[in-house]
Design a protein that fits this description.
This protein is of the alpha/beta class and 430 residues long. Helix content is 48%, strand content 19%.
């Protein structure tokens, strides 16, 4: 009996400890996206999804505030979201935030969507960034995106009519309207309230139904990985433009002064990094061609006597190319205007100034070497004749010849040089 009693007491104690032992709760992974949807953003979200799946998170929350972004980057994100094994909650936050254009597609693709008070979602009509697309082409693009949005809405059980209208008519909804029309499932003041309301909801993850168990929860914040940070830097229009200018300047200095090496190496690196960024972002290649032409014209100014015409042409080409480079992109995919004009003026003056100094140096009379004495005046030390003689010029005594006999003491003009002997003639008085 005593033995059975001890076993019973130990069993009760173990059960008590199991019930009262602290629990870390469900792990909820969280990341913030508060910028345009670019390749860097796509890389960050896909990285977060992969991390959440590997570490078996209960849910992943994407806190979203975006003006829109690139279609291809959006499709990459949506594809990863549809393939996710972890339930994804998209939360448009904080108050005043928006999930416009590309952001609206991300909301539609989520397993569960929430919005903070004072936010809105929608306005996803496509924009041709070059500004030159045919209306029929734009209509086809809009129809394609509308069908894409409707498919996402149908898959997640959301309002298909809104999905189509946000693309074709740029319709946008407030958080209350989005909740009423079934575009989102939750309106919450903060992240804690969102997770409390999400607890117990059932969502369809691939082909299975999952009940969200988020009480209690442990919030794990995901920071940008190294690759995302590099992407963000190299896809910044301001930095791309500046690297492009530095690259052209470095190559310009290298070609103008062959053998300097350092400017050429730095310029080549900057130019390659700039071209990498330009290959990702939408750009107007006519603008890029004009900028490269400007670099060529500035270089030719140092090689061809154009009296400044090539330098002026280079400055005009640089100005036009800089304005056209990012075309009709939205502000977040353009160079900051004050920076643009500052760089144009600075680099035009720099290119032009270097070209002017080089031309001036090339045209300046030599002050040393073989031709430095020609044109100078000397004095005959020993009679000079076709057979020879001595003259004193620039503090030195030289052997000299002349076509006539010039007596000692006469002033002569240096007209040529053959080896170590000067050719002189008698200086005529004015």
């Amino acid at each position: 009996m005593v033995k059975k009693g001890i076993i019973l007491v130990l069993s009760i104690l173990i059960c008590f400890l199991a019930v009262t032992s602290p629990s870390h709760g469900a792990r909820v992974y969280h990341l913030k996206v508060d910028s345009a949807i670019t390749p860097a953003t796509a890389n960050f979200i896909i990285f977060a999804l992969s991390k959440a799946q590997k570490e078996e998170a209960q849910a992943l929350v994407i806190e979203l505030d975006t003006p829109g972004g690139l279609v291809e980057s959006t499709r990459e994100i949506v594809k990863a979201m549809l393939d996710s094994e972890v339930p994804i909650i998209v939360y448009v936050s904080p108050s005043g935030a928006r999930a416009a254009s590309a952001g609206a597609f991300i909301v539609l693709a989520s397993h569960l969507a929430g919005m903070a008070p004072g936010t809105h979602v929608g306005a996803a009509h496509p924009v041709e960034l070059s500004g030159k697309a045919d209306p029929k082409v734009m209509e086809k693009i809009a129809n394609d995106l509308a069908a894409y949005a409707k498919n996402l809405a149908e898959l997640r059980g959301r309002d298909q009519r809104f999905a189509e209208e946000m693309v074709k008519k740029s319709v946008s909804l407030t958080e209350k309207e989005a909740l009423q029309r079934g575009v989102v499932e939750i309106v919450a003041e903060d992240l804690g309230t969102l997770l409390a309301k999400a607890h117990g909801k059932k969502v369809k993850v691939k082909n299975r139904e999952v009940e969200l168990r988020l009480k209690p929860y442990e919030l794990v914040r995901i920071e940008e990985d190294l690759k995302t940070r590099i992407f963000k830097v190299l896809t910044n229009p301001n930095l791309i433009y500046f690297l492009l200018m530095l690259g052209l300047l470095g190559l310009y200095l290298e070609f103008s002064h062959p053998g300097a090496i350092l400017p050429g190496v730095v310029g080549a690196i900057c130019l390659i990094l700039a071209l990498f960024g330009l290959s990702i972002l939408p750009v107007n290649y006519a603008g890029l061609a004009l900028i490269l032409l400007a670099g060529l014209l500035f270089f030719l100014e140092t090689q061809v006597p154009s009296h400044g015409l090539l330098a002026i042409g280079g400055a005009i080409s640089l100005f036009l190319g800089s304005l056209l480079l990012f075309g009709d992109n939205p502000p977040w995919l353009k160079v900051y205007q004050p920076l643009l004009y500052t760089v144009i003026i600075t680099f035009s003056l720099l290119f032009g100034g270097i070209a002017y100094l080089m031309v001036k140096t090339q045209r300046k009379k030599p002050v040393s070497g073989e031709f430095s004495l020609i044109g100078k005046t000397g004095k005959v030390m020993e009679e000079v004749s076709p057979k020879g003689g001595k003259v004193f010029v620039s503090g030195e005594i030289w052997s000299a010849t002349a076509d006539e006999v010039i007596p000692a003491g006469e002033e002569v003009l240096i007209v040529g040089k053959e080896g170590f002997r000067l050719k002189v003639r008698k200086k005529t008085s004015n």
